[in-house]
Amino acid sequence: MNPIPLPVRGTTPETSRTFTPDPARAPDEDLREAVWELGREGEWIVQPVPEPFVEAPTRYGRKKKIPLEHTWHHKSCGQCGHIPGYSTSIFWLNRVLGFDYHDPEDQTSCTAWNYYASATSNQAAQAAVAMRNFAAAYESGYYPIIHCGTSFGHYKEVRHELVHDANLRRQVRDILTRLGRPFVMPEEIVHYSEWLYAVRDRLRERVVHDLSGITATVHPACHYYKLQSGDAIYDPEIYGGQRTAAVTAVVQALGARVADYSTWFDCCGFGFRHILVQRDFTRSFATLRKIEVMKEEANPDVVLTHDTGCVTALDKSQFAARAHGRNVGVPVMSESQLAALALGAHPYRVTQLHWHAVDCRPLLERMGIDHERAWAEFQQDLQQIESGAMPYLTWDKVL
Fold first, then answer.
1. Residue 109: how many CB atoms within 10 A of its CB?
2. pLDDT, tens digit, for every residue of 35-63?
3. Cα–Cα distance between 261 and 273 in angstroms, integer?
4. 207-376 belongs to CATH 3.10.270.10
5. Strand ranges (DSSP E) for 265-342?
6. Could you tell me which residue ranges the Cysteine-rich domain spans (predicted)?
7. For the domain 29-191, what is the CATH code?
8. N or C, which end of the chain has less CB nearby within 10 Å?
9. Per-domain residue ranges for the chain?
10. pTM recorded for the entire structure
């Protein structure tokens, strides 16, 4: 495959055309006022975004409130299951920045696995799962922030349905009443990568590893910005406001170079239904349409994204393509993991790169991180746990 000449170098479009966002001309409605109006009518409780917050730009020029702390973290089932360093990196960054947050024990996963794989139950049950989690956050006194891009997109669709369907609201309210839970809608539905965008300057101030020699490509997660796209983060300084800025702006703030590639808009290949019933399609798409194109057009040191399925598909599909001699072999992780590494997090205790399929050690070497020493320290931790001298790793151990 020959490299494709691109009209974009880095994140600055080489064009005279400009896009000026205008909320008055947005093609979709701003649901937030409807959410507040339903709250005033007694249909539900609206949980306001707590202070301090940052107002971030969105696709059509509306401002979105992103809370900095007092956050209730809606974890991802896939992250907890096979990319644990994804979530721990987010928590580690909160602690390094000194922000108050809550890691709940009463959260349920969203139902998007069933929803997007065409095995869903019914509309009210789908919405009730989302609203039960929002109720749990409200009862804790913390504001929900969602780790999973699919949960984020799915919950925004639930919000849209509940705003427009009084009968569905009644059904879901009845379910929550039987559960003994309040019927609560957050003022904003917030993804963790938006929080990272909001704190990117604070992260820059704490970088301890030089990333100026690192080239990254970014895969923007479909379920983050293609579902209910109006409130995803878009920044005029990133691709002229024509692509979501959530990951790219953070990576640039950390000091790395972001390189463009022609298939940036394509899905990672995960696709939910595909990963369940057509896994070879997922592996082929992830490697041939994404990884190989990135390698040939940008040759990155790392691929970064902000959703569970994307990390999974792009990282764990490469072994099959490598067996067939394809041009693959680039580490994949979330931007939260790269940010944690840049700020000095332990590559195995915190970012847990040993869970990843592609070898991350060349990247660590380019970042100036002694992975051999880190691995020896991690092995000592495991020996202490095995001997009973230490029950598990604690935050005191890794901070």
1. 17
2. 999 999 999 999 999 999 999 999 999 99
3. 26
4. no
5. 302-305, 332-334
6. 217-314
7. 1.20.1050.140
8. N
9. 29-191, 207-376
10. 0.94
